[in-house]
Amino acid sequence: MSIKLENVTKTYFTGEVETHAVKNVDLEIKDGEFIVLLGPSGSGKSTMLNIISGLDNPTSGKISIDEAVISDMNSKQLTKFRRDNLGFIFQQYNLLQTLSVKENVEVGREVSLLPFTVEEVLEQVGLSTQADKYPFQLSGGEQQRVSIARAVVKNPKIMFCDEPTGALDEEMAKEILGILQKLNEKYKTSVVLITHNPSIGAMADRIIKLNSGEVVEIIVNKNKLNASEISWG
Ligand SMILES: Nc1ncnc2c1ncn2[C@@H]1O[C@H](COP(=O)(O)OP(=O)(O)OP(=O)(O)O)[C@@H](O)[C@H]1O
Ligand SMILES: [Mg+2]
Fold first, then answer.
1. Cα separation of 185 and 188, whole Å?
2. Sign of the C-alpha dihedral computed for residues 57, 58, 61 and 66 taken in this order
3. CA 191 to CA 173: how far, in whole Å?
4. Average pLDDT value over all residues in the chain
5. Would you tell me the crossing angle of helices 101-110 and 140-152 to the nearest 10 degrees?
6. Can you tell me the distance from the alpha carbon of 197 to that of 187, in angstroms, rounded to the nearest whole number?
7. CA distance 12 to 112
8. Which candidate in 33, 55, 180, 191 could, as Cys together with 50 as Cys, close a disulfide (CB 3.0–4.6 Å)?
9. Long-range contacts made by residues 71-80, C-beta under 8 angstroms, separation at least 24?
10. Which atom, in ligand 1's list, is nearest to the CA of 47?
11. Mutate to test the pocket of ligand 1, among 8, 11, 12, 16 (most ligand atoms within 8 A of CB)
12. Looking at the domain 3-229, which fold is it?
């Protein structure tokens, strides 16, 4: 699905203080693109991702995903739109501790229109043999792979990822990024990925740089690298 932002602004009001987290952003993301959102802490990356994906409302401006104008939707419509079309991966894994690996992934599958099977997705993230374990029996990287499997199994049209590798070491991070890359190449899932690490831009189609809530640069990457080939910063 393609995404279009027209003059999008997000301002937070806390007491006397106004924070302009996203300022007058115009942007188009094409169907099937792999986008890396880069910028320093506080530059508005998470805010931007949250409003692009309908987790939060913009203060003004228009956001469309294909024909759907999500900035006009009420919260019930947004919930349905997200459930049917979007996948999310965050730095925190948010797994259900009382459910096994398999059952956690099943939760993602239940809410979907065209899901993959739990088995094929666990295979993809290399967790087939761990399906009956519980989250506390897994390493951090393995838990992150479960959260990826849970997001992937619903076969989303767009995958939004906020620092998905922020808590992982280089080797595990590249493995996770490789899974996202495969999803993008094989199923043409659009990916919007936030990171602090500029070297991850090497695997993107385009790198969008934010500073103080504004898009300051867009870099088109002609020679995309495999996740495993990235030289880590
Ligand atoms: N709920 C909120 N209320 C008030 N201000 C907020 C809120 N959320 C974010 N902000 C402010 O908006 C700005 C952008 O925050 P945002 O979380 O989008 O940054 P970020 O680029 O994701 O940073 P990081 O890399 O540290 O995660 C910051 O100045 C932040 O303090
Ligand atoms: Mg953030």
1. 5
2. negative
3. 16
4. 94
5. 30
6. 25
7. 33
8. 55
9. 71/8, 78/54
10. 18
11. 12
12. Rossmann fold (3.40.50)
pLDDT for the residue numbered 166: 84
- Report pLDDT digits (tens) over 191-222: 999 998 999 999 999 999 999 999 999 999 99
Three-state SS at 154:
coil
Would you state the structure tokens that stand for residue 203, as one six-digit string? 């695997």
Q: Report how far ligand 2's centroid is from the alpha carbon of 130 (Å).
A: 31
DSSP state for residue 172 in the 8-state scheme: H
Q: pTM above the 0.85 mark?
A: yes
Question: Is the Cβ atom of 46 under 6 angstroms away from ligand 1?
Answer: yes
**84-100 residue pLDDT tens:** 999 999 988 899 999 99
Q: In the predicted model, what is the mean pLDDT of residues 34-46?
A: 96
By C-alpha distance, which of 112, 25, 81 is closest to 73?
A: 81
From 10, 45, 90, 208, mutation site for ligand 1 pocket: most ligand atoms within 8 A of C-beta? 45
Q: Encoding tokens for residue 92?
A: 């925190």
Amino acid residing at 209: K
Matching residue, tokens 């894994």: 93
The tokens 């849970």 sit on which residue? 150
